[in-house]
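Recap from last week: sequence in, structure out.
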Amino acid sequence: MRPDDWEHVGRVANALAKSDLVPDAYKNKPANIMIAAAKGQAIGIDPITAMESIHVIKGRPSMSAQLMIALAKRSGVFIGPLVFDTTGTGASLSVTARWRLAGINQEVAETVDMATATKA
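Predicted structure tokens:
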């Protein structure tokens, strides 16, 4: 962004930070809004979507699972639905996400267990 863009984003961030409609991580925190807007611009989403979909976890902006899925769908790399399979419960829970690659129609899958998720 050019300096003029940052000034505009700063004015908008100050206004948005006063709103009751923004998530708590952004209320009265225009700097957080500016960071979310910059991160949103970098991944091709608007500032409002960024504030709704980028959560601050332990001081770090992190994309929600819904945003990750939406960006993956938008990329055109995958075809068909994203399918989740779960096994176990509680500490032994694991989830496998499966999708098909466009072009070669090959299935890809990734499994995450509760221990890995907790560590992350």
